[in-house]
Amino acid sequence: MEMKDSIDFGGMNLGKLFRKLLLPTLVGMVFSAIFVITDGIFVGHGIGSDALAAVNITAPLFTISTGIALMFGAGGAVVASIHLSRGKRRTASINMTQAVAGCAILMGVLSITVMALRDEVLVFLGSSERLMPLAKEYLEWFTPFLPCLTILTAGTYFVRMDGAPRYAMMCNVTAAVINIILDYVFIFPLGWGMFGAALATSLGYVVGAMMIIYYLWRRGKEVRFTRIKMSRKSLKLTLRNIGYMCNMGFSSLLSEGAISCMMFVGNYVFMRHLGEDGVAAYSIVCYLFPIIFLAFNSVGQSAQPIWSFNYGKGDTERVQAMLRMAMKAAVGGGIVIAVALSVCRTGIVGMFLPPEAAAYGYAAEGLPLFASGMIFCAVNIVLINYLQSIERPAPANFITLLRGYMLLVLTFVALPEITGSTAGMWLAVPAAEALTCMVSIYFIVRGKRRR
User: Does the pTM exceed 0.70?
Assistant: First the structure.
């Protein structure tokens, strides 16, 4: 099946070009995020609320791994897109090879380290003695396959850049469908519990990674895997290139790390105020937020090759027109998701927990409060992608640190005390996003005035 599209980043009508990239990217992102929530649905109903909380304890490992992949993928795609805009196809292929291989090797080293220190890692992530056995079982069958996750995630950037967004979509869709089917079979008919949930997700990663490798090795039109020389000079150049790509994509790692920070700090605060039932309720938000983040990020990722290609050509008007279009899409998407989370809160919570569970009531009350920050979140994520795409990593990194770390920790600590109720815990993330949005808009306005 032919999956390549006729795409001209520099000359095609922007609206048509953006739709060609956005629709398959969004579908692929949604299915990619189904990886995250499928385990929650099947684990919550098939194993129990303690198992749901245990999977949430290990979730920061997933977001950190995804962040590493996004850093290499986003940074490599920015650099490679600029080279392609100047006709340097071989240089772009070298950048792609360095990015995909680099993130897989790094993740392999981190996976080995986590497996060697798994008890210490789980204690650090906030696991209680009660949750430790379940969290440990999940981690042991999930962590060794994280390099495949990084290949799948980083590789889709380059497949889209090569003019095949539908093939990139199919990589994520195929992996997610495999995960859904195997999750059900392993947890319910076979009764494999946490082992089955972890193995189902891991096998989905393996298949998706194999599809990426096949495309970039055999079918790439503009970029293909290229042999990297092993001489000392070549290795020094490779390390320099990887360092530059990581600098360009570092805000993507920070953004994923921010999700881990949200989970880590939130788990601690909810455990302190509401115990294990509070963590189980908050875990539903932690399952939903990656899919929300990926939906918003798909807008930025779809616009990225357009921004970078035209930035490399010096076409400022086209870059700014694409920014306006992406911002409209972000605001619209934020409104839709905020309304959906508020209106459908009982149905959403019911997918994870039975109504008689104590955590059910906490989650149903808190979800609309959490939804209030979705528009601000969408704007922040798209603006970070934009700054990254035009080689402005410093403000992109600062905005990411602000929304996902500094203000997030501050609001989680302060708001429960200020409000004197659990509402403050649910409003911590929206407050951090709203405050950051003001700073983000300031950076964009100041950049326009300088130009």
Answer: yes
Cα–Cα distance list, 201 to 148, 159, 167 (Å): 11, 22, 20
d(CA 74, CA 174): 22
In angstroms, the CA 308 to CA 259 distance is 26
Query: What is the DSSP secondary structure assignment for residue 117, as one 8-state letter?
Result: T
- The CA-based diameter of the chain, rounded to the nearest angstrom, is 64
pLDDT along the chain (451 residues), means of 10: 58 84 82 69 77 79 85 89 85 89 92 89 79 84 90 91 87 89 89 86 92 89 81 84 88 82 85 79 82 86 87 86 92 93 87 80 86 92 90 88 91 85 86 90 70 57
Q: Residue 240 CA to chain centroid, in angstroms? A: 26
Q: Which of 390, 387, 389, 368 is closest to 439 using CA atoms? A: 387
Of 151, 188, 215, the residue nearest 3 (C-alpha):
215
Q: Which two tokens mark 297?
A: 């990020």
- Concatenate the DSSP letters of all residues of 309-353 into one string: HHHHHT-HHHHHHHHHHHHHHHHHHHHHHHHHHHHTHHHHHHHHS
Contact of 384 with 444, CB cutoff 8 Å: no
User: For residues 259 and 70, what is the distance between their CA atoms, to the nearest angstrom?
Assistant: 13
Q: How far is residue 118's CA from residue 114's CA, in Å, rounded to a whole number?
A: 5
Query: In Å, how far are 17, 85, 379, 417 from 334, measured between CA atoms?
Result: 22, 32, 8, 28
How many CB atoms sit inside 10 A of residue 126's CB?
Answer: 20
